């Protein structure tokens, strides 16, 4: 990911700093984060990267605005997609197409780490396609990131409905050009990309035969899920790892505040936590810790299991000291490595800014903590605060539309709605993933099904398989591909009849 | 309908005249025409009008652009809808809501003539809602017709995807405000409104429990239906009425051209056909005749059956004269009444212009006659001609998107696609309606069904029932409401379980 370059107008440095320093953290929706970067020493990732050599890159002249006929709407931009036809049976064979929907990041990282398609393409004789989401990576309207993100008039076209229509256009064109009109298309995505995959099956069933929606919190929208669900699950993860760990973390926030309230308190905290650039408010430290805990929970994956790693360190420290903050520091050291100092300044990537735009417009995910029922401090979701912080970043003419996703894609009574409508969707979730709180966790019908793993975390199933994978993860993927094969077989039977 | 007032910029008189005079008729998609105006002497229509007194008018502050976050997108306009709660069981009772989707006309005419909702509301204890389509009637963005239609930048928001989202927003808001969240919503529409109804069930199943799509040619789009299907069915109608009538009409075009080619030919034709303002080209007469024949076929309804009326007159005339054009004139007199002269100048209404915009943007219905297999002259559909004529009317920055509807809503292999996806849609068609050629004429699944009447025409089932209705029409409506009741019963059973 390219680092954010501070080149453009509205999003100038002072604004951004103001935003970073002053925003209530809870109003910043955590990046759903398609998949975590896999460490380069992972052999399977290297294998996946090697196969990347066989992926060819293409660009589609994408319509800027599918739902408008103003002169600007006809403008096109180059949308990047990649294909690997090594395993594909070829044109006019009705062989399947596995399509990965890019989410809130450049597609490059997914191409490296999402091994699901590569793993099953050979036995399906499938074509592999990765499509990048508009306004990320190289799929930038208006020619460049700087132009695309320069103001709300250029950013306005950046939303999930347009992205779904992009995918529809690319796939229709691609199938036609490859003489693959009768090829069944299975769409696959993780996290926000998983939402897109499930919504695509619901909105474009004539293009996507089925969807694998991994860790897709499609119910984390207005009125559907308690705001604190994300944090309740993260809390459960820590409780399960160790009650001492949970208690230590839960007690730490007031300790931090107590020290911060002293005249030299911020300096003391900066020293205690070895912070490179001394903090100006205790919230900087608390936000950083919160991010660490939630990230560890979201990506609590084998073989490391970072929640256990943090808690083990806290538990060991608890044996040698009664000082809560020393215990907390032990957790930081375990998670981040033993460093001379810890840099609290986050690098804001282009993709971070893109996701921020999305959560400031249609993807209003109301996460917050109204009650003292998690291990985190109370921090309610307040729409007004979100709006203000969005306007501080993007200008006063942007206003979140919290009702929109539920109006456009539904959610209320989803079981009743989809019991007799829709088909061929897998909602997969790892129950340690805090985002699973907004996921579909029950079977809805014969072919709209939930696959759950008790010990799984965010989008684990999509990662490149490893020989060290636990049995439940191997089994999860096997179930998924078996269901997908069933859809394809049923489709072929229908074609023949 | 307000007459078109020639007040605004691009659409100035010279352009319009150029458009009217020079356009190849085949490139102008006939108005789908929700329902024909019912003569005022019809008692049932009077009854329907009386009930109009109980309809209350409301306005919803509608989002101008649902799929964009540019500053302009947030603008709202007043969207008109009407409700009649006389039969409704009220809030918190889960009583049904019957919703009529306005199409390419002000809603007023539909409120008068669409009696289907009024007829069945009492036995269903249903709330009746009529919603007007954006850019028609009083639901005009930018404050007025003149502003809304002044250029492509203001017209750009005028398309079917935005209209569907409008209906979604109105219904979500309305159900909430009425404490009717659990009320099943049945959406009903005719012609283009029928397309909208079926698409709504497919795209917004969480809002619409089921759809009655009357005479909805959702398959009359690119690559789905032969271009001449509309004209083939009209031809069949005339053949069935009388082979002599069909032959007379079929032979008449060359007769007209032959006379027109003479030095005083156009004058002769004007006299012969009693045209008020002499014609400047034979196409003016031929277009007018074609419009008469197709309109008679589309609205070939009891008790008059205009196709038979025209053909009877032609057949009677055929006994007294061998002159083809005298026979044709007899048909005109029968259809239009015996007038001193016939005015060929069409009044262009606001709604006509709205429909023209829609067929110039997303609703590209490729109607034309490539072969000499109808009773009409050859007149192929040529996209380039359509584009040119659209640009002549609306400006060079509008370009039809012929692929869009099929990408957005599907159509290819609809039976396979919807066999295992979607539910609760009735596609009703009268097989004399030329637009039935683009309709869904076969059952797709248990609950996505086709209801056909051999002698029916365009959107007959939606009209206010009359005691003179033929049995097949009474039966058609009874089948429809019986199916709708089944959906509602099934929904209630699901609510209870």
**Rg measurement of chain A, Å:** 23 Å
Greatest interface: A-B, 59 and 59 residues
* Structural shape of chain A: globular
**How many E strands of chain A?**
8
CATH topology of the largest domain in chain A: Rossmann fold
CATH architecture of the largest domain in chain A: 3-Layer(aba) Sandwich
Structural class of chain A: alpha/beta
Range of strand content of chain A: 5-15%
Mean pLDDT of chain A: 91
Put simply, the count of helices of chain A is 19
Number of domains of chain A: 2
CATH superfamily of the largest domain in chain A: Alpha/Beta hydrolase fold, catalytic domain
Side by side, the strands of the main sheet of chain A go 1-2-4-3-5-6-7-8
| Unreliable stretches covering 5 or more consecutive residues of chain A | 1-27, 34-52
Order of helices and strands of chain A: HHEEEHHEHHHEHEHHHHHHHHHHEEH
The quaternary structure here is homodimer
Major sheet of chain A: 8 strands, mixed
Determine the fraction of residues in helical runs of chain A and give it as a percent range. Answer: 40-55%
CATH class of the largest domain in chain A, please? Alpha Beta
In angstroms, what separates the terminal alpha carbons of chain A? 48 Å
Organism (chains A, B): Coptis chinensis
InterPro entries (chains A, B): AB_hydrolase_fold (IPR029058), Peptidase_S28 (IPR008758), Ser_carbopepase_S28_SKS (IPR042269)
Signal peptide (chains A, B): 1-26
GO molecular function (chains A, B): dipeptidyl-peptidase activity; serine-type exopeptidase activity
């Amino acid at each position: 990911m390219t680092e954010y370059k501070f080149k453009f107008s509205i999003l100038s440095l002072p604004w951004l700093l103001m935003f970073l320093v002053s925003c209530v953290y809870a109003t910043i929706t955590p990046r759903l984060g398609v998949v975590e970067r896999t460490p380069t020493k992972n052999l399977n990732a290297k294998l996946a990267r090697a196969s990347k050599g066989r992926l060819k890159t293409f660009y589609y002249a994408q319509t800027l605005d599918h739902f408008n006929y103003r002169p600007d709407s006809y403008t096109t931009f180059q949308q990047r997609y990649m294909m690997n036809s090594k395993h594909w049976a070829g044109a006019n064979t009705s062989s399947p197409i596995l399509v990965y929907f890019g989410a809130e990041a450049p597609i490059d990282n997914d191409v490296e780490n999402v091994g699901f398609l590569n793993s099953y393409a050979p036995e399906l004789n499938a074509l592999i396609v990765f499509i990048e989401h508009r306004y990320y990576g190289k799929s930038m309207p208006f020619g460049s990131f700087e132009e695309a993100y320069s103001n709300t008039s250029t950013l306005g076209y950046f939303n999930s409905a347009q992205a779904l229509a992009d995918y529809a256009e690319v796939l229709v064109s691609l199938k036609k050009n490859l003489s693959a009109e009768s090829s069944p298309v299975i769409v696959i995505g993780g996290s926000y990309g998983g939402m897109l995959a499930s919504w695509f099956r619901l909105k474009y069933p004539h293009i996507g035969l089925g969807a694998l929606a991994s860790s897709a919190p499609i119910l984390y929208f207005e009125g559907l899920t308690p705001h604190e669900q994300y944090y309740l699950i993260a809390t459960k993860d820590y409780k399960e790892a160790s009650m001492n760990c949970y208690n230590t973390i839960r007690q730490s926030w007031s300790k931090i505040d107590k020290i911060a309230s002293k005249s030299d308190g911020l300096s003391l905290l900066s020293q205690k936590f070895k912070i490179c650039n001394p903090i100006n408010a205790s919230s900087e430290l608390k936000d950083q810790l919160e991010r660490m805990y939630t990230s560890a929970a979201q990506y609590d994956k084998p073989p490391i299991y970072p929640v256990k790693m943090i808690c083990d360190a806290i538990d060991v420290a608890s044996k040698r000291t009664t000082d809560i903050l020393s215990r907390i520091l032990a957790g930081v050291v375990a998670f981040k490595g033993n460093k001379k100092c810890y840099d609290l300044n986050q690098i804001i990537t282009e993709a971070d800014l893109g996701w921020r735009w999305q959560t400031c417009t249609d993807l209003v995910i109301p996460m917050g903590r109204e009650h003292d029922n998690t291990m985190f401090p109370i921090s309610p979701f307040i729409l007004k605060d979100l709006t203000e912080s969005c306007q501080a970043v993007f200008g006063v003419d942007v206003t979140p539309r919290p009702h929109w996703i539920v109006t456009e894609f539904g959610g209320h009574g989803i079981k009743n709605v989809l019991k007799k409508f829709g088909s061929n969707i897998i909602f997969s979730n790892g129950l340690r993933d805090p985002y699973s709180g907004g996921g579909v966790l029950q079977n809805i019908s014969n072919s709209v099904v939930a696959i759950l793993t008790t010990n799984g975390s965010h989008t684990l199933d999509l990662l490149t398989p490893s020989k060290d994978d636990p049995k439940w993860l191997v089994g999860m993927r096997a179930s998924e591909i078996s269901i997908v094969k069933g859809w394809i077989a049923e489709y072929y039977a229908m074609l023949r009849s």
